[in-house]
Amino acid sequence: MKLFSAQIYSERRSQLKKAVGSGLILLLGNDEAPMNYTDNTFRYRQDSNFLYFFGLNQPGLNGILDADSGEEIIFGNELTIDDIIWAGPQPSLNELSRKVGIYRTESPASLPAKLKDFKGKVHFLPPYRFDNKIKLNEWLGIPVSKLGEEASVLLIKFVVDLRSIKSAEEIAEMEEAVNITGEMHKAAIVATAEGKMEYEVVSRIYEKLHFYGAELSYPVIFSANGQTLHNHYHGNKLAAGRIVINDSGAENAMGYAGDITRTIPVNKTFSQKQKEIYELVLNMETSSIALLKPGIQYRDVHLDANRILLKGFSELGLVKGDVEEMLQLGVGGLFMPHGLGHMIGLDVHDMEDLGENHVGYREGLERSKQLGLKSLRLARELEAGFVLTVEPGIYFIPELIEQWKAEQKFTEFINYEKLEAYKDFGGIRIEDNVLITPDSFKILGNPIPKTVEEVEALRA
Length: 460
Hints:
Helices cover 39% and strands 13% of the residues. The protein is of the alpha+beta class.
């Protein structure tokens, strides 16, 4: 089990206790999740907040931090002889806890009584797993339907504040995850070929992933139907003239995520039509990255990417009229119906279990209702230490185009007649993971081919 130093975890917990000020902080770990019967489980993944503060990546653990007394306890069972027979000898919970700076462990059976007897406020985070919802219901007497609203907003805000700023140790882990992800993407670019099934190429992604001892940070999106934003179906045969979106990422041994997207021509080269759209998306991405620095509002970067999209589409004759007016009205949402990016760290969409608005927005910065902009997960001002994705895309979604056309939406701007020739195009997305530095930015990891020339060279 790979861990940071005990001092790092101890400092994180101390900061959290100091910030919350008073009360008992309850941090739930995750249990095993059965696939079809108790002993046949999905791949285990520890809760990211538990990982951040306690570091131990094994099931059956929960932790409390007493903000008044300073007491810290991990609750979990020690291994029995039956456990050792099936899983082999392991370090004791007491030994593991000491490695993360915890010097008191107790049986899980003692936790409910400790919570019941506590006279102050019990702070907990909003649970996303049903078994943890049931536990909180039993321990705290809060109806399952009310747990979200009863979760401690104070605790949520301080956890977001702490986890948003990545330390040097975390950045090193994220670079490792991105570098493994880069190898997955290069393998996919090489393996893509006319006549192959999508799942054949996906198998190469898995091969590289497991060669480096990593796991997926989210299910692979690899599809010739890239106009479907999160397309996890891999049963299409790759046909000449198509382009394929590969959005896939590795999670390293410490749980840190990579999230990279590249777009690949099934042919050895891009067609002229594909190249025009691809280079427009690449311009959106590189221009957006160049704007990044502390203090800039990521919402403005999203809008600037849309401005580049609309200018490019004006030159191609797909839209007409004043670009700034189209930008204000949200015309670009037809072609990029998602946000420019999100925070990334221990979660691929970092901390979103705590509430997307707590992570990506602030008081006074309200979410838009426009298509595209309403899906922007990160809108607030950037700070040094943030790590985020920059992932513009252009998609031709036949059903959406037909709906807007039938509603006669933005007919003064959109050339629906010319769009007919793009309905079988699919989609293009290009994505990198970027650290905000004290005065600028840094793209994490080794370069991953993304220019037309680089992609075509690897295809060859």
